[in-house]
Amino acid sequence: MSAPTLLSLRDIKKSFGAVQVLLGVDLDIKAGSVTALVGDNGAGKSTLIKCIAGIYQADSGQMSWEGQPVKVANPKAASAVGIEFVYQDLALCDNLDVVQNMFLGRERKRGFLLDHNAMEVAARDVLTGLSVTTVKSVRQPVASLSGGQRQSIAVAKAVMWNSKLVVLDEPTAALGVAQTKQVLALVRRLAERGLGVLLISHNLEDVLSVSDSIAVLRLGRLVTQVQRDEVDSQQLVELITTGRLRGELASDALRQAGAAAQSSTSGIEN
Amino acid sequence: MLPVLVGLVILAVIFQALNGNFLTPGNLVNLMVQGAVYMLLAMGMVFVLLIGEVDLSIGFIGGVAGVIVATLIYGDAGNPWYTGIACGLLAGTAIGIFHGLIITIVRLPSFVVTLAGLLAWNGVMLIILGNGGTVPIQDPVIVSLANGVMPSTIGWIIAACLIVLFAADNLIADRNRRRNGNAVRAPLMTYVRIGLVAALAIAIVGLCSVNRGNFAPVTGVPWIVLILLFFVITWTVLLNRTAFGTYIYAIGGNAEAARRAGIAVGRARVLVFGISGLMGAVAGIIYASRLRSVSTNLDGGTLVLYSIAAAVIGGTSLFGGRGKAVHAILGGLVIAMIDNGMGLLGLSAATRYVVTGIVLLIAVSVDALARRGGANAGLS
Ligand SMILES: Nc1ncnc2c1ncn2[C@@H]1O[C@H](COP(=O)(O)OP(=O)(O)O)[C@@H](O)[C@H]1O
Ligand SMILES: [Mg+2]
Predict the structure, then answer these.
(1) pLDDT tens figures, B290-322
(2) ipTM for this prediction
(3) Shortest CA distance to A181 belongs to which of A213, A156, A149, A153?
(4) Is B200 part of a structural domain of the chain?
(5) CA-to-CA distance for A25 and A36, rounded, in angstroms?
(6) Which domains does chain A have, with CATH numbers?
(7) DSSP secondary structure letter of residue B104
(8) Residues with Cβ within 6 A of ligand 1?
(9) Cβ of B242 and A93 within 8 Å?
(10) Which of A16, A200, A202, A218 has the most ligand 1 atoms within 8 A of CB, as the residue to mutate?
(11) Which of A187, A214, B11, B29 is least surrounded by CB atoms within 10 angstroms?
């Protein structure tokens, strides 16, 4: 792969008291592509991205950003590095309008007063740049938007800040078919603009339609990270549920299938 | 904001029909002065309600501030009025911040912490007042805060300045929005807005310029009108045009989203309780000024309940995230109207409570309905 690797995780471990949730996860995320993270409920996906976000601190393991080791101490540090997060819920304030939401916490000011004009122009530009055309007025309260529009606003908000990596946790879980399509198209456009995207999703159809590479997490271990065209839906289900492909360890099976060498499938022998 | 305006008109019509004295200039000026304490308290309450909290203590915070002012300036060797007021305001703000810190650090519900405050500061007020029970206020400046008037000429000059400022601000804002290709309201709407504000300012000063004395002539604009104006403008600018104002709305709308956006939610909450404490103190000082004394009779519990009612009747949501400083003025006016109108009719306090209760219930229902019709949120 020619695209530079943005973020690599090596041997990330995390436990809560006696509960070991992550048992050594390796993951590589490249710029300009959509990396999907799939796995059953409780596999540890949310825990993993909270470690990336600095909400949790990993117990051990290395994290490197553009080849350099980094430590993300808190969510602010994550956005300083260039990582933004979009959550399934709790992302927007219903009573604020689109512009206020997109600039929340990072308002533009003139003196100590807000520069409403500049923010409105910038918000519109970002939405136009991402072809989010269904939002009629950026001055309407977010409460009046559909689920898909809201999620689009949340995504647009994430890319406003010169971010290089956008992490989306189940962004379409609460959406209908048409709105899911709308958001997935937006996710695709982010990658086309050169951003790295990490997409967590339950919905394999979505994952297969939008991602370039797929990482499978099972019981706190990364089973494998494969290119999109190396697997089909059935194989993916098998990987998620059993961690194996046709009874063989996933990594061996893929190697035998002549898959392109993946850099990050170590650490799964057990 | 529409429901409360409609309510004001309905109340005015009813009371005027029942007693022809209701809409006389003298009584209307009275209304503004009578409502001032509720309005000032309610402005503080709007802030706490906006972040989805409540402050039951501000009535007695006002009591404590009033007692501090009265005691400090009392007697021949007393401090000057400005020292008294500064200490009173500082004490109110500090008490509010103290409540905010407990709520934030110990993670207790504001209802409980400020209920404790209501009891404790009532006690503190009584302790400072001691056995005497009453401290008179003679300082002419402090007495005139609630009782004094400025000459009508000065009132006209201030009104003219405010109208010009309001018009310029609106027109310049519209022009800048148009230049940037941003959404602008129709020019006609802007002129209507300016016209309405101008008409209101002229009506108020005009009303105050009519002689309303029964024996000796009385004219002039009460200073309290200017004080109310100062606070409503200050808080409106803070809420609409500063980042802190946006944070207050954000916390009330979705505190978790605000936190994830990097907003220091705890610090904002503490500051908001500081503001409500400050407004409690302002109201308490005005209350003392109006009575020309402070005494153990001050009922901070009723005051605070009335101020919550005023904020909600004015259009501020009990559920957080929706509200404006001007709601305090409108709601306070409704409450003062009910008090005043029913007083003119010779009805008992008991009847007034019943009517105020019914009006409050109607206002909360309107709020709840608006909330359910979520698409309209924020448009009111
Ligand atoms: N704060 C926590 N304390 C204890 N256990 C936790 C905590 N957060 C998550 N877990 C446990 O970690 C496991 C993985 O959770 P999670 O990362 O949310 O999985 P996923 O997002 O893949 O469904 C679950 O078994 C969950 O109960
Ligand atoms: Mg999860």
Answers:
(1) 999 999 999 999 999 999 999 999 999 999 999
(2) 0.90
(3) A149
(4) no
(5) 15
(6) 5-92+165-265 (3.40.50.300)
(7) H
(8) A 16, 19, 21, 39, 41-47
(9) no
(10) A16
(11) B11
